[in-house]
Amino acid sequence: MNKIFNPLIVTIAAILGVIVGSVITERSNERITQTHRKMDSKIDMLLNLVNLQYVDEVDIDSLVEKAIPKIMEELDPHTAYIEAKDLQMVNDELGGSFSGIGVQFNIQNDTVMIVDVISGGPSEKLGILPGDRIVKVNDTLFVGESINNNKVMHKLRGPKGTHVKLGIKRRNNKELINFDVKRGDVPVNSVDAFFMLQKNTGYVKVGKFGAKTYDEFVGALMSLYNEGAKRYVIDLRGNSGGFLDAAVYMINEFLEENSLIVYTEGKAQRRNDVKADGNGRFQDFPLAVLIDEWSASASEIFAGCMQDNDRAVVVGRRSFGKGLVQNQIPLNDGSAIRLTIARYYTPSGRCIQKPYDNASEYQKEVYERYVNGELYNKDSVKSPQDTVKYYTVGHRVVYGGGGIMPDFFVPYDTTFTTPFYNKLMNSSSLYDFSFRYSDDHREQLYGFADYKKADEFLKKQGLYEKVLAFAEGKNVKCDKPQPQNTQDRIVQMARAYILRNIYGENAFYDIYYEKDPVVQEALKRIKK
User: Fold this and answer.
1) pTM for this structure?
2) Given the residues 116, 192, 308, 510, the one annotated as active site
3) Catalytic site includes residue 85
4) What is the tens place of the pLDDT at every residue in 67-100?
5) What is residue 209's three-state secondary structure?
6) Whole-angstrom Cα distance, residue 242 to residue 214?
């Protein structure tokens, strides 16, 4: 695919937000140098005074590590300091791959259970299987209450080419199976799932915008096209953002030449317009974009661009409201500063960044949406939007200042919620039951031609009664009969979790969203 006009340069990763590189002019560079000189003299003097004359011995490096985050807190909520020990993991989130053994795991009964083996990873090549239990690492027992996710990650991840010895307990095997795993590149998928929702409608769920998201995304679109897709539902719910260029290249697939995608501007950053190059392969396909309160940054660029260009129908709930652009700047000791350098604007001129004057209020703003009823009733929306009217290419009025408002609001679904359902979900009993069931019936479930056939089998297995019995064994008791829609939801969730353990993410999301009101609204609107 050809380059997009004036592409923004992308650097390293971030957990939440748009990350871009920056080109600094000579004048800006000189101003930064002068600022450094002023700050260096004062900060250096203070540190030297403390180091030489303070009454007690002080670890200066430790003092600096504690001071930098305090300075960052005085800026905006997305400017941050990343310690050297955390930087690699932060980068891995969006980098497309990391070095490890290539398994997805869960801790059950103080034991590391392998839920899935990543295709193409080191463990798959050695014959490690879903359902295996890791009970020894490097000849040392690795079970018990002290085991947690961080300890497992620390043990299993490591530099490429290094080795880790695993003692595996496999179902129906009395003896431990020993593996010497050579760590290697493990792919990190950012397209969570894609499948056909209906005969002519493809569905793609994008979990984040990473280094390889564009390639994964186009691959998913093409695969669904070959299955007969003539329109697409793009699900960005829960997607907190990532690399700006990933979103730009994805958007480019749907827009006509010279259509404005996004522009950025800041104190030291001149306005930079990014436009479509006209080479997109899906310019004529009807689209729906799904968003919610956790769709942020690059997700909002995607949704806002589609809305402003009248290119897609946007369905769901008001997005997060993050319109700041960060540049990640490495420091000499291996740490980094993620510095906000600009704001991004949708094609109509909207900046959708919500106010951040009060840091504590900013952090709990989404929670306040639950409290004030916004997630359940469109009339309760209390968005801190600006009052300026912006216009889409079709002259529809839109607003900025507090996230992207969808074209069609769909409330948070609580129709199946009861006290018992909440207790069941909060206790993790349903998830634990599903893992146990899939482990006990693994060979049988593998025997079906596809997950839809396996799902038909599960529907006949009395899962609701089995879930209740399992939950009661964990002191989660159902004291009274549940409404039918609650029962149906519990069974649906169990089916989705079980099939995920056997057939992967496509199976999970296909079952999980089979009656989802946001998806159903999108299907209705996209046909019109």
Assistant:
1) 0.84
2) 308
3) no
4) 888 888 888 889 888 888 888 777 776 676 678 8
5) strand
6) 12
